[in-house]
Amino acid sequence: MMAAVARVWVVVLVAMAVPAIAQPSPVDVASAQLSRAEGELAAVDTALDTRVDRAARAQLRDRALAAQGDAKEAADQLRGQLALVDARIAGLGPPVAGVVEAADIRAERRALAQSRNSLDSKVKRGQLIAVEAAQLVAEIDQTQAAELGERIAVRAPSPLSPHFWSELFAAVPRDARRIATFLGREGAQIDSGLRGGFPWGGVLGALLAFALLFPIRQLLRGLGQRYLIVDAPGHRVRRSANTLWRVLIGTAMPTAAAFLFVQGLRWSALLATAWNPLAQALVVAAVFAGFTASLGAAFLMARQPSWRVVPIADAAATALRPVPWGLATLTFAVIMTGAFNGAAGVSPAALLATQVVEVAAHIVLIGGTLLVIGRLRTRAAADGADEQEAAASAGVGAVTLTVWLIVAGAGIALLAGYVGLAITVVQFVLWATLLGVSTYLLMVVIDDVATSLFQRDSRIGQTLRHGLGLGGSAVDQFGVLLSAVLRLAVIVIALGLMLYPFGAGFGSFVDRVAGLAQGVQIGGVAISPGTILRFVAVLALGMFLVRQFTGWLDQRYLPSTGLDGSVRNSIRLVARYIAIALAVVWSLASLGIGMERIALLLSALSVGIGFGLQAITSNFVSGLILLAERPIKIGDLIRVGTDEGDVKRISVRSTEIELADHSTLIVPNSELITKSVLNKTLGGQPGRIQIRFSVPIESDADHVRALVLETFAGEPAVLDTPAPVAQIEGIADGRILFVCYGHVSSPRATGEARSAVLLTLLRRMREEGVELGTVPQRLELIPPAAANDGSNG
How far apart are CA 658 and CA 635, in angstroms? Predict the structure, then answer.
């Protein structure tokens, strides 16, 4: 029995050991990955030898990028194995001349040399595959750019020219016959399907489509709102979730309705084979039209302003309400018209005329929207908008002016016959608008959800605080940071999708961003108008991002940290200057100026900076010391020389101090570092008042001391701890000198408290008949004769 059990365990152990024995080495895995990448790259290269459309070209580009990534990853893995082999070779050391090594050592040297040569060749092979993949990607990008340029540059007959209309009228008979033939095929298919029996599938599909479009869509929208009102945590989350729900329902219901309607026709054999592209286009059109209409409705919320996430007026939302529906209808018509023309095979003249009508309709829609916005701005200006609304209106005015210029250019291009250019421009305007609205709504929703769910008083926040022991400030900071990271990701994705109408998808954008992140050019710098414009654009974008980052840091993140105002100011200033420095370096990198050239430039200017800007440099360094060590903070009461006041602002060059007369004293930071400064509120210590006076030597000193202590005790501003003190400082010229101390809560309260104590003390001393004063001074005039007698004696 024991022998049988032992045999079973041996079999089990062997079975478990087989996978471990058969597991390939890292070198074999990387080599196989290189082979797959090389084969994929060869397939992409072969596919590019034939004519491919834009969609297929984008897929080939993604495949080439994937092969490039696999080749780089495999090369990195092999490079690591090569480093291990080099370490083993270094461990053996070089052969010693005249010394015969052992056979096993010589064999190991040969094996390591062969392994190193093999790994080195595979690493170089991976690098070569990556370079070839990059060349294929560049070739695809050039082809896309050339195709876009060709489409834009082609000039067709102008709609205002007789040639345009003559070609259109000449093609009408043939197009009419093609359309009639196309419609006849569907008619024959419907007749054939009806002869086979009642079209239950088509009727059911139509009924389901109608139910999804109207009653079910309205029911789901109402159920979602009722659920959010009852169970959602907070108004902001309810509002944002309702926006997402409306967009989801508004997109999913038309899509499902179109799909069920098409499937119903197919189930009842009522759809001809030639009409399949038109049926597929119906589903696509339903997706885009439903998304456009639901997005616009969720953005405006004209009928439910309390659920609106965008700060726009009710009048503006009502006036702009027809715009999303008009754009959705136009989008649906454009997609269906294009599919119909392609399936029916109409003439190029008819296609051109259709494109002209589509562009003209888009221009009319955009122009009408701009007119409505302009009328709303005029009405708001007449009603007297505040400064914030005026600033927002100025920004809207700049955007509308830009769009007016773009649309006018598209109209001129259309009339001149450049229909492809006009289509591209109009598509970009609409796509940018749709993408901008989507991005804005998604960013608002992300901020509402992240900052509402992750706050100290929320359910999740309390769970994190009690379960993980996190502080309330840490939970708030996590919500703000999570919101910032997610919104930044949304912006990056939106920027990538912005290039889609120009033939470059999100992969192209990510590829370019990755290329920029790899480093700056180290070689010569090529200065041209293009590089200068790029430098200006990058610098403007960098400064805009710096402003947004510092605004977010100052208004959102730092208030959630619980730090005091001085620490916030220090962090804000240091972060601002670091961000500005990074923006400048980024803009210089766009010119091709590397860090080596920047270092050489700074070293060349160091002598001039040392002599000419010595004071500024000293103040700058002193400001950094003040911000780091914080011997002086915002709100401190300090005395510089004979001036005393509150610190209002600390920058890297100077410090602003508000004096008692509300004037501002600007002190260079070097003065605060190299000279003596009295900080009365450093460490939050209480203020101290001091009173000196004298009484005649005949006075009762104990009684005077008791009066002083009673006066201190009767003043509310004087603290009990530390206790007031009244001491005899000395006796001079027949008078007793008293020095008295009392403490108040803040150094700023010493003046008022000292005045109140003196008023009370003078009144009490007068009532008690005690003479207050200082040591009397007596001036005697000595006659000259007496002076001489005294000197002679």
Answer: 10
